[in-house]
Amino acid sequence: MIDSQSQTPGAARNTTGLSFILILSALMAFTSLSTDIYLPAMPVMAKDLHGDAELTITGFLIGFCIAQLIWGPVSDHFGRRLPLFAGMVLFIVGSVGCALSENIGQIVFWRVFQALGACTGPMLGRAMIRDLFSRTRAAQMLSTLMIIMAIAPIAGPLLGGQMIKITSWHSIFWLLTAIGTLMLISLIWLPETLPEEKREKASLAGAFRNYYTLLSNAQYMRFTLCLTFYYIAAYAFITGSPFVYISYFGVDPQHYGWLFAVNIVGLMAVSVVNRRLVHRYPLETLLKCAVTVAALAALVLALGVRMHTGGVVLIVVTVFIFFSMNGVIAATSAAAALDAVPNVAGSASALMGSLQYGSGIISSLLLALAGDGTPWTMAWIIALFTLISAGIALTTRVVAVADN
Question: Keywords for this entry (predicted)?
Answer without folding.
Answer: Cell inner membrane, Cell membrane, Membrane, Transmembrane, Transmembrane helix, Transport
